[in-house]
Amino acid sequence: MDGGLSDWFATVVGVLQGCILLPLLFNIFLEVVMALVLDGNEISADINGHCISNIRFADDISLMAGSTDDLQHLVNKVL
Fold this sequence. Notes:
Order of helices and strands: HEEEEH
Number of strands: 4
Structural class: alpha+beta
């Protein structure tokens, strides 16, 4: 902090850096979060006849909606 080192502290939860389970656990967690957010959701953007409400890649999520108000509603549900 302010150019100096802090005191050591114990980490008692989580996975170790480089753990091969981390991507799988993250994807499972993200699927549950998005399922809760999008459950019963009718908000989406029409792209070439396909209704799309979100696009996900790695740890990025893009929410899509037909209007600014609908998009804000989706963002509020994610937060």
